[in-house]
Write a structure and sequence with these properties.
Helix Hairpins; HSP40/DNAj peptide-binding domain; two-stranded antiparallel sheet; 7 helices; 9 strands; flat
């Protein structure tokens, strides 16, 4: 039977940095997203993940070196709690692993609820030569996503409101125990929001948003040059979860 060191392709006395480097290389190579439909690659990926979880933890590695198992029972094989695994160790791969293991699922759910700034919008204004010389107040129509005018952005039919998700009781996540694994994933019913809309707004169909054209007046100073960027703070896309709106950038 191959050892965890063999799984990562390193020697038993390998340094922490050597173990991490080998893990990153193998994780990228065998990740299911890079090998869709390849069951062998998925199994190999899980083996690599298990090996790294043990060998990257000093205490687990010490027990494994002594007993052949990080739980002190010879031959029992390593056990891994992916719910406590820090996916930040592998940088950008943390986002890729999010759909597989609970630790990343909880992180993603928290991120969904945090206020997020809205996106910036860029629009062009075409000026005549005379207007660019003397300056002008230009009207700029901009198509953007705004809160639904019917429901005020709640997504629920006017007169109603979103309710606490009955499947996760408002937590936004569901925890499942599968033997030695502790998995926590975003609630499939409310998608991590903690609330559900029983009666969707007929105008936005539950999204809470709609596309509308808004017109802004921009003060263009005399002598403006082509390509000048005029930024209007807070006039861009609305933020999420109470976050600030983005900016409108008008290009002459």
């Amino acid at each position: 039977m191959s050892s965890l060191y063999d799984t990562l392709g390193v020697k038993k006395g390998a340094s922490d940095e050597e173990i991490k480097k080998a893990y990153r290389k193998l994780a990228r190579k065998h990740h299911p997203d890079a090998n869709p439909g390849d069951n062998d690659a998925e199994e190999r990926f899980k083996e690599v993940q298990t090996a790294y979880d043990v060998l990257s933890d000093p205490e687990k590695r010490k027990q494994y070196d002594r007993f052949g198992s990080q739980n002190g029972r010879p031959g029992a094989g390593p056990t891994v709690d992916f719910g406590n695994f820090d996916f930040g160790d592998i940088g950008d791969l943390g986002d890729i692993f999010g759909g597989l293991f609970g630790g990343a699922g909880r992180t993603r759910t928290r991120a969904q609820r945090q206020p997020q700034r809205g996106g910036d919008i860029e629009a062009e204004v075409h000026l005549s030569f005379e207007d660019s010389l003397r300056g002008v107040k230009a009207r700029v129509p901009v198509e953007m996503t705004t809160a639904c005018h019917e429901c005020g952005g709640t997504g629920a039919r006017p007169g109603t409101a979103p309710v606490i998700c009955p499947e996760c009781n408002g937590r936004g996540v569901k925890a499942e125990s599968q033997g030695l694994f502790a998995l926590s994933q975003p609630c499939p019913r409310c998608r991590g929001n903690g609330t559900v809309i029983e009666q969707p707004c007929p105008n936005c169909h539950g999204s809470g948003r709609e596309r509308r054209i808004k017109t802004y007046t921009v003060n263009v100073k005399p002598g403006v040059k082509d390509g000048t960027r005029i930024r209007l703070k807070g006039k861009g896309e609305p933020g999420l979860n109470g976050g600030p709106a983005g900016d409108l950038v008008v290009v002459t």
